[in-house]
Amino acid sequence: MSGAGGGAARGRFAVVGGGIAGVTCAEKLAAEFPSEDIFLITASPVIKAVTNFKQVSKTLEEFDVEEQPSSLLEKRYPNIRVIQSGVKQLKSDEHKICTEDGKEYIYEKLCLCAGAKPKLIVEGNPYVLGIRDTDSAQAFQKNLAQAERIVVVGNGGIALELVYEIQGCEVIWAIKDKAIGNTFFDAGAAEFLIPKLTAESRETPIKCKRTKYTVEGIEEKGRPTAACDKLGSALGPDWHEGLHLKGTKEFSHKVHIEILCEVKKIHLQQEFIQLQQTSLTFPKGEKDVEPDEVLWPVYVELTNGKIYGCNFIVSATGVVPNVELFLDGNNFAVGEDGGLKVDKHMHTSLPDVYAAGDICTAAWEPSPVWHQMRLWTQARQMGWYAAKCMAADALGESIDTDFSFELFAHITKFFNYKVVVLGKYNAQGLGSDHELMLRCTKGHEYVKVVMQNGRMMGAVLIGETDLEETFENLILNQMDLSAYGEDLLNPDIDIEDYFD
Ligand SMILES: Cc1cc2nc3c(=O)[nH]c(=O)nc-3n(C[C@H](O)[C@H](O)[C@H](O)COP(=O)(O)OP(=O)(O)OC[C@H]3O[C@@H](n4cnc5c(N)ncnc54)[C@H](O)[C@@H]3O)c2cc1C
Ligand SMILES: NC(=O)C1=CN([C@@H]2O[C@H](COP(=O)(O)OP(=O)(O)OC[C@H]3O[C@@H](n4cnc5c(N)ncnc54)[C@H](OP(=O)(O)O)[C@@H]3O)[C@@H](O)[C@H]2O)C=CC1
């Protein structure tokens, strides 16, 4: 029911954002209301579509992600109208969206899925790069092609993937924690993974899904190539497979890890030289690394006192939800992590405005074994469920919380190992009242379960363990497992037989 003439266009449903959350939401709405126009307003020139969706178990899912022209989405769902323009303003009290191209859209119900952006250690420094979308990934690739040494800061998903993939460039990896991969692993799992990182060469990657990369970065002479400032959709599974992550050196992989430190200061070359000349106390170049005569474009001073020169720095230090623009003039409740707070029906604090994916903060009382993480899988689940809630609300129907929010479940790949994390896999929020059971075969598998009061609360499965479905069931049904003791992880016992 789009409006005619020069005034605002009208649609019953509008969705902002062409990433996984927004596209999934628009698709679900389009399927539920085939005779209504669904506006999908997005700043990105391409949309992200989920393909080859596979439900691996009750809560684990796998899918490929494809960057597609919006026309393909409109072909699949003729009632979706993709508007390729950034939102300039939201007037929630008027149920109106104003876009950068000067148009206005009136909605009955709106879902905000504008994602997040990298939370950089410093803003506005051309030597500090974040990786979020196709554009920033390509800018990173171009810079890497000229680099001999880079510093990677952060200890989460992106850093884990980068340090493993980069070739022909020395990587100094600076982490706050004692062990690698704090967002996914404990120290035991980190120790299991380290030999893969320090190995000179890498194995052939296990099954890979490709995402197509199409948008070019913009070159600026003398400085790292900058990504253009258009807000693209986030990358996802196997984003690096399509890129050539190689520096200028002949060696394969060289990673040096600096633990328990943060970045204290970043010095540009000129400033570094001046400081060396004027200060008696200022360190003369890198300590604990091979001394070299090279002058680096930029120097990173760490809180442990060490200084490393490098070509550029990757800040893989998490994300901040893209909310500023929507907060202007709208009194949204915002979570501690900066996201728009949503209740168990994905509804924000403002009437008829929903939110899903990286932009939102789940503010409902979660199941004891679910928590929010800004992941592709949760973006899809939230987008789908938000559409269900919008539809139910529009039709005056009630709806139960979706089953996906019963158990946190994520399947991914690090260091060429299959990794499955379930429930409170790192005993998040369980305090000291829990115990861990471990099974580990070096180079083959690492299995950790988190137990509380005889019940399984979480698990980390690295390698081809084949345990995910059984453990998923055990966490979901909260059966008392005290009687099984250590047999729970005994490889000689077929655990599934126990529970069939
Ligand atoms: C390098 C990298 C690797 C990752 N790997 C994985 C992984 O292996 N597994 C996993 O589960 N997750 C992974 N993630 C996380 C995952 O990609 C995100 O959680 C997910 O894609 C978020 O989807 P979204 O739709 O909420 O947001 P986004 O994908 O960020 O989409 C936001 C959309 O909103 C649009 N937008 C923003 N502002 C405006 C505006 N003002 N007006 C109009 N449109 C706007 C953008 O153009 C974009 O289309 C990775 C993330 C990164 C950066
Ligand atoms: N395979 C997968 O599933 C992947 C998922 N992703 C997702 O993409 C998103 C972005 O990834 P990423 O940027 O790695 O974010 P993550 O949230 O995964 O990790 C951020 C890391 O940076 C650390 N950190 C935060 N601030 C600082 C700081 N000032 N100095 C030093 N370290 C800091 C965090 O420590 P602390 O936790 O202590 O704050 C954490 O180790 C995340 O949602 C991530 O889950 C990305 C790649 C792969």
UniProtKB/TrEMBL annotation:
Organism expressing this protein natively: Corvus moneduloides
Gene name per UniProt: PYROXD1
Single annotated GO MF: oxidoreductase activity
Start and end residues of each NADH-rubredoxin oxidoreductase C-terminal domain: 412-478
Names of the cofactor(s): FAD
Protein known as: Pyridine nucleotide-disulfide oxidoreductase domain-containing protein 1
Keyword list, A-Z: FAD, Flavoprotein, Oxidoreductase
Chain's role: Probable FAD-dependent oxidoreductase; involved in the cellular oxidative stress response. Required for normal sarcomere structure and muscle fiber integrity.
Domain (FAD/NAD(P)-binding): residue spans on this chain: 13-194, 288-383
Family: Belongs to the class-I pyridine nucleotide-disulfide oxidoreductase family. PYROXD1 subfamily.
